[in-house]
DNA sequence: GCTTGTCACTATGAATTTCATAGTAATATG
DNA sequence: CATATTACTATGAAATTCATAGTGACAAGC
């Protein structure tokens, strides 16, 4: 995609959007952060078609956010993992999550995931700083726990996906 | 767009992406945060076609991020402004900017915009907390200054846009 | 040794979206 | 009365997306 407005600009937002400015791409990244490393898990949980997943993973790899790791030869099978650049995207996803929780859901729907801030042992809240201790949140100092309802939703998606094959 | 994976999920990221999961949408929001409130400014600076701008603004209005304000009757003319929900999106853009500056540009290209943290009077850095005083950054406590190179880029885009009509 | 299952995709074609180019409508300005 | 300003709309070709189906390589069970 040649693109004079985003490739040749100094604007970091435009630059970023050429790499992650797509719904499926962000959903794939969400899954990688959620430790879904296999193609089928990503496909099932994002709801994308296999072509979409293939295309996004390929582009993410080209852009340096994702790397493939062989976990099986014969047949050749890969797992997808975040690189340093991919891991660095976490604050964006955290901010997007905070906005989504605050502005895209009714109050009675609960949180999908609750984070515990491991450095202080208490609830981290929505960030960017821990609501319990005030320190900036880093992904490696976080323990995630899915709300039962959200966990069930994911389990159901996986079952539905497997059943449809 | 009926969408069983993003409309019916508890995941705030998926919810958010149905509203802002698109390159043009994010670029339009960037312009609104940059205080471009007129249709043509947005069109010129994003590089989108008028249909794209129309469609995104309409959707953003429907989703409650943007409101139209009449600034002229006869002919009827509107300006586009962020609502509270739209303003609340700022941390996402800030995080995206930080990631873009850090990972989508070569070191020798400078920053596009530098922020001064008004509460401490010093450089705010890339956030989410002020690099000078450590406090969380809020948009209304920030003064933005465009790098001369970036300002020239924007001026040139505006000139090119006007010349092409 | 043959069927069934697993995993990661690819193939196909219709439907939708995007893009470039051009044009319109209402009014102000010189 | 001609030109400029502003905010769009129209059109059709090109590209992308989607749903549905299928493939290839192997493992595991019987």
From TrEMBL, chains A, B:
The keyword DNA-binding applies. The keyword DNA damage does not apply. It holds the Pfam family HxlR. Signal peptide: none annotated. It comes from the Bacteria. Keywords: DNA-binding, Transcription, Transcription regulation. SUPFAM superfamilies: Winged helix' DNA-binding domain. Residues 11-108 form the HTH hxlR-type domain. This is Helix-turn-helix transcriptional regulator. It comes from Bradyrhizobium jicamae.
């Amino acid at each position: 995609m040649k693109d004079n407005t985003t490739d040749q600009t100094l604007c970091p937002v435009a630059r970023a959007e050429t790499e992650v400015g797509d719904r499926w791409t962000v959903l794939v990244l969400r899954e990688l952060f959620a430790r879904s490393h296999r193609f089928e898990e990503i496909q099932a949980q994002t709801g994308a078609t296999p072509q979409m997943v293939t295309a996004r993973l390929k582009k993410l790899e080209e852009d340096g956010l994702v790397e493939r790791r062989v976990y099986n030869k014969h047949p050749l099978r890969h797992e997808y993992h975040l690189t340093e650049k991919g891991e660095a995207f976490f604050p964006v996803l955290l901010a997007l999550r905070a906005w989504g929780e605050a502005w895209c859901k009714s109050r009675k729907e609960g949180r999908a995931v609750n984070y515990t801030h491991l450095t202080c042992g208490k609830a981290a809240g929505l960030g960017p700083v821990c609501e319990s201790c005030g320190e900036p949140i880093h992904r490696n100092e976080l323990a995630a726990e899915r709300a039962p309802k959200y966990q069930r939703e994911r389990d159901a998606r996986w079952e539905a996906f497997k059943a449809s094959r």
